[in-house]
Amino acid sequence: MLTSVATASKVVYNKGCCISENLPVIGLPKGLFYYEHSILWESFFKILGFPVITSEDTNKEILDNGIIHCSNETCLPVKVFHGHVYSLKDKTDYIFIPRYTSIDKNEYTCPKFCGLPDMALLNLKNKIKVLEVKLHIDKDTGLTFESLKEIARILGVNYQDTIEAFQTAIELFHEKKQEISRVNCYNQVRDLKKRAVSVLGHPYVIYDSYLSMKLIKKLKEKDIDVYTPLNLDHKTKRHNAYPYQGKAFWEVGFENLGSAFTYAQDKNMNGIIYLSPFACGVDAFIIEFIERQFKDRYKVPFLKLTIDEHTGEAGFDTRVEAFLDMIG
Amino acid sequence: MKITFPHAGNMYVPIKVLLETIGICYVMPPLCNKRTLEYGSTHSPEFICLPFKIILGDFIHGIQNGADTVLFCGGLGQCRLGYYGDLQTEILKSVGHNVKFICIDLTFMTVKEIVEKIKPLTEGKSLGKIIKAIACAIWTVFRVDKLYRLASYTRCREVVKGYTDNTMKEFHTRVQNAKGYKAIIKEINRAMRTLKTLKIDKKAKPLKVAIVGEFYVALEPSANLDVEKKLGNMGVEVHNTLSVSHWIMEHFIKRNLPVKSKNTPHEAGKEYMRTDDIGGHGLETVGNAVLCGRSGYDGIIHLYPFTCMPEIIAQCTFNEIQNKYGIPIITLILDEMSGEAGYMTRVEAFIDILERKRETSKPVMDKKCGMNV
User: Fold this and answer.
1) Which alpha helices (DSSP H) does B98-210 contain, by range?
2) Which residues does chain B have within 8 Å of residue A71's beta carbon, measured at their own beta carbons?
């Protein structure tokens, strides 16, 4: 039954139909969760029949607005996220900000994800209306359905429809994810004529071309094969995530620890670059584990780059170039 | 087998009781000092939070003094505390200390779990003795916290300045040398008696300031520059919303009781954070700030270590709380490079503001009184 719904709604999704003038517009900020779960939430609202607007790619204005509205200590990706929310403020009726607490069994998120909807509301002085879905899979999936009920009430749609739309969206999401991992599937570095470098970090840092200063693009322009955590499948990453195999840790920790140790085992991997926002609490742990393990067990060159809102691109480039020269 | 444990404010007193009653051999690291922090921050990652560094320093101190096992806590969730043990094991190993880690899980803490976890330490000891030790330790926690509350009451009111500090200093020296539950309780009672006989100014109406924030830095005087004592000596009554006894009440006693009750700060914090958990003590911080705003405090001091994730979230609610409840809040972010003078200037300026605020609101109160007459 569900697969038929999935195919039916795929048609809906691809058409992007049902744009009526009276329906509230949902805004999807292009930050944090967006880089991994955009398909899930975009199709969820489209299946329900609401028009969805995504904010622009990160730019100077978005960054500046984010900085204005956040406290100093907040990390760069969260500031940028606030900038995205601010840019959607006047264009949309509701802004969708999910509340991720744990997104799988034993896999937690950074605390900032848990307080994100409240943070956005408080920092933007309640000028926006927020829709939220709670995800706390480690503890209780019932919370998710409660929050879906709330969304159904606010948007004035049937609760059953909402649930169905959510389940279909999840199926779509998993399908797309499998497709991506099939296309990008990494086994080992094959093309020995080219240099291969893996770029690690939070998805919302490495895939955001403004925050990462187009690092991936720059590497590709230099004719380098770039590997990211996306190229590995879920199981391999969990299996190699020393020392947290089978234990509880942050989701992003599993992704990066697993990727780092998988890529480090590959003799043809020339180097690993880790991109980390300034004062990231989660990265403090992850990078320390990676560095200590690399020193003891693997012989792969490792570069840690820290970014913040002041970063001068020239200095950043110099360090990347120096690293590339070093790995030959 | 010799074990060592980290400090957290006055936590060492109950731990001493626990270990001595069971009869476990232990080494207590010296109370946190400059050396501790130096050891800790040399081997820690740059952006890790301050408690990690101090605790690591404590371990190294303990190991240097002959310990071969470390007693610590762990858990899961968003806060980094739960993962401390794993990284510290790794770091200690790389420095050349191959020690055993015993992590008590804080997330689902029950008597059974504790007994099981400390089993390797307690071989040959009867279960009854262990449970008695746990009970004694918990009772000590409540007594010590009561002593601390009494000290913060007398410190700002005492007629001869410095008397409370001297009593507490003496208490710490004596309790470190005392052995066993009875002797320690005797020391606590002794200090209490001394404080109760202190000459205090009963008419004084000191400013009332609450401390909210991250558990460890709020409790550990060496991490928070002893702000509680300094404020007390400036004539300010300090209420520390965080205490070990409160923590044990919430996480251990209430959890093991058949009747479930609600966590008051959590409920109050939900006014701004519509969730159960933002990691660590984040929600408690928000809730305590709201509760203090409601109950007539003059100001709030928010303490947290640099890069503490839950407290950064909590901090963004403070603008709203300040506006709604009219209570000034100052945030102090602590790290290993704390320049004490800079912090004290800010605290003093904050206290000046509170005094001014009280003075300007006084005439209104007098008018009210006048109307009543």
Assistant:
1) 111-117, 127-155, 163-177, 180-196
2) 312, 315-316
CB B216 within 8 A of CB B200: no
DSSP-derived secondary structure letter, B252: I
A76, A309 contact by CB (below 8 A): yes
Per-residue pLDDT band at A323 (split at 50, 70, 90): very high
The CATH number of A188-327 is 3.40.50
As a whole number of Å, the end-to-end CA separation of chain B is: 72
Residues in CB range of A271: below 8 A, 6 or more apart: A197, A198, A300, A301, A302, A303, A323, A324, A326, A327
Mutate to test the interface with A, among B44, B50, B78 (most CBs of A within 10 A): B78
Rg, chain A, Cα only: 20
Q: Do domains A2-182 and A188-327 have the same CATH topology?
A: yes
pLDDT tens-digit series, residues A152-204: 888 888 888 889 998 999 999 989 888 887 777 777 766 778 889 999 999 99
A171 touches chain B (CB under 8 A): no
Task: Please tell me the number of Cα atoms within 13 Å of B198 on its side-chain side.
Answer: 28
Residue B368 in this model has a pLDDT that exceeds 50: no
Q: What is the mean pLDDT of residues B344-373?
A: 74
> DSSP of B223-251, one letter per residue?
TTTTHHHHHHHTTEEEEES--HHHHHIII
pLDDT tens profile A242-277: 888 888 889 999 999 999 999 998 888 899 999 999
In this predicted structure, what is the pLDDT of residue A16?
45
**All structural domains of chain A with their residue ranges:** 2-182, 188-327
Between the alpha carbon of residue A280 and those of residues A39, A287, A292, A306, B158, the distances in Å are 26, 10, 18, 9, 45
**How does the average pLDDT of chain A come out, rounded?**
86
Coil, helix or strand at residue B82: helix
Question: Contact B157/B197 with Cβ under 8 angstroms?
Answer: no
Closest residue by Cα to residue B100 from B71, B139, B79 = B71
- Yes or no: say if A88 and A95 are a contact pair by the CB < 8 Å rule: yes
**CA A222 – CA A225 distance, rounded (Å):** 9
Radius of gyration of chain B from Cα atoms?
21
**Which of A67, A119, A257, A292 best tests the B interface by mutation, with the highest count of B CBs <10 A?**
A119
Nearest CA distance, B192 vs chain A (angstrom): 41
Mind listing the pLDDT tens digit for each residue in B193-234? Answer: 999 998 988 888 899 999 999 989 999 888 888 899 999 999
Of B82, B273, B277, the CB nearest to A118: B273
Prediction ipTM score: 0.87
Contacts of residue B66, Cβ cutoff 8 Å, sequence gap at least 6: B2, B27
Cα A286 to Cα A291: distance, rounded to the nearest angstrom: 9
- Please compute, for residue A305, the number of CA atoms within 13 A of its CA located in the half-sphere on the CB side: 27
CB atoms within 10 A of CB A290: 24
Pairing of strands B299-305, B207-213: parallel
Q: Which alpha helices (H) appear in chain B, and where do they start and end?
A: 12-22, 34-43, 50-64, 84-95, 111-117, 127-155, 163-177, 180-196, 215-219, 227-233, 244-248, 254-256, 264-269, 282-294, 309-315, 318-325, 340-372
**Best CATH choice for the domain A2-182 from the list 3.90.1720.10, 3.40.50.1820, 3.40.50.11890, 3.30.420.40:** 3.40.50.11890
